[in-house]
Amino acid sequence: MTGRVIVVGSVNEDLVATVNHLPAPGETVTGARFAQHHGGKGGNQAVAAARLGAVTIFVGAVGADDIGTAARAALEADGVDVTELRTLPDQSTGVALILVDAIGFVGKEAYLRQREGSPAAVLSSLTVDDPRSGDGTARYMLGREPILAADGSPLVDAKKRRSYVTSAGSGPSIGKHILMAYLPPEQAVEGTKLLVEYFGERYPVTVAVAGSTPLFDPGNERIRS
Q1: Helix count (H) and strand count (E) of the chain?
Q2: Cα angle vertex 80, ends 76, 84, to 5°?
Q3: What percent of the chain has pLDDT over 90?
Q4: Is the pLDDT confidence value at 72 over 70?
Q5: Quick one: DSSP state of residue 140?
Q6: Rounded to 10 degrees, what is the CA torsion of 186, 116, 180, 214?
Q7: What is the DSSP string of 10-49?
Q8: What domains are defined for the chain?
């Protein structure tokens, strides 16, 4: 990546304590594991851009304290230009106080059980093969249109959910109109021919990608060039 990136944002210090359980109001919890990390959404973005090779300038402010000095040094160590990072007198650098419990989050066990099994549906990218209607007018789907099998039957996943277009838009870089939809795994196969119903007519579509890989520049080579 050889472009120039200017990030305007925050930089702060994350103070993270991992505890067995989150304290109730007024409760003292002991036995925590403590760690400090440089943070701030702007600072994190600047570091990511610099590590990708971009000339990165960070615009922001820190306080006149040890945390601010350390944050500035950390950005510089990652190759970020901090000329526009101001130090404000009589101000404290921002800190984030973060408590993480050993349990994790509500629903964690159900989430892990779900991950162990096969997905009921797979988010897929489809391209419209021919957008022309019966009278020759080009029609472009906008979302919520039903996806059908090649024989016209509805697609239904293991949880009895129909497949619909979740979002749609023009893809000028690939010369196609693109649809996103959750498909049953047996239909979420690249090259599968399906139909989309739009205002009572059916249009041929093809599964271009099954999963989260983008259609354009799937290897992110463009951003790295």
Answers
A1: 4, 12
A2: 95
A3: 74
A4: yes
A5: -
A6: -110
A7: --EEEEEEEESSPPPTT------EEEEEEE-HHHHHHHHH
A8: 4-101 (3.40.1190.30), 118-210 (2.40.30.110)
d(CA 19, CA 120): 35
63 and 40 Cβ atoms separated by less than 8 Å: no
* Residues 215-224 pLDDT 10s: 888 877 776 5
Q: What is the pLDDT of residue 128?
A: 98
Return d(Cα 74, Cα 67) in angstroms, integer.
10
What SS3 class is residue 110? Answer: helix
* Residue 140: Cβ within 10 Å count: 13
> pLDDT digit string (tens) for 40-70?
999 999 999 999 888 999 999 999 999 999 9
